[in-house]
Amino acid sequence: MNRFSILVGDITRSDAKAIVNAANTSLLGGSGVDGAIHAAAGPELLEECRTLGGCETGRAKLTRGYRLPAEYVIHTPGPIWRGGNDGEAAALASCYRSCLELAEEHGIETVDFPSISTGVYGYPMAQAAAVALKAILDFLRGHDLPRQVRMVCHTEQAARIYRQTYNMWYAGSKAERL
Ligand code: AR6
After folding, report:
1. Global model pTM greater than 0.70
2. In terms of C-beta density within 10 A (0-12 exposed, 13-18 middle, 19 or more buried), how is residue 150 classed?
């Protein structure tokens, strides 16, 4: 089985041990994938989130998954796109790394990510894909856990951009595919 893959789907239906939520710093829910995760998990998720005291952009916090198939949710507030010169790429990379570190700390073997910041927060998809893929693949090369990571794109168009970015990257490098 590949350690990393890109697929199209609804992350609330994911069978990974942990799914990532593209949250905001309040961790108290919102629209987009955040709204879908809270709706599917049930009100207990919001109750637990209320105890967490929010989360800084680029960091991550873990909760249980309640009525979701996933056992855990890793909440991470992505950066709001402000044109690209406001530290957005570093903050976005930090989101992916923080989620993976948290998964490793908790012995979580399988993690599914949505495309953080590319909805309400306006991060251009191709640029976000380059940052996300580099952060995930760099982390996996240096760590045994998580054993498997998937990018769950909400649309075929988003998945195409992620796959193109992934293929371009390997075409220009000697690195072995994960
Ligand atoms: N499964 C997988 N991906 C999804 C799903 C889903 N069910 N639903 C949406 N996406 P967004 P952000 C994709 O807006 O940009 C919230 O209000 C979507 O197509 O959910 O990080 C939070 O509370 C897009 O590519 O998150 C924050 O306030 C990606 O998920 C703010 O939005 C992210 O879109 C965060 O904005």
Report:
1. yes
2. buried
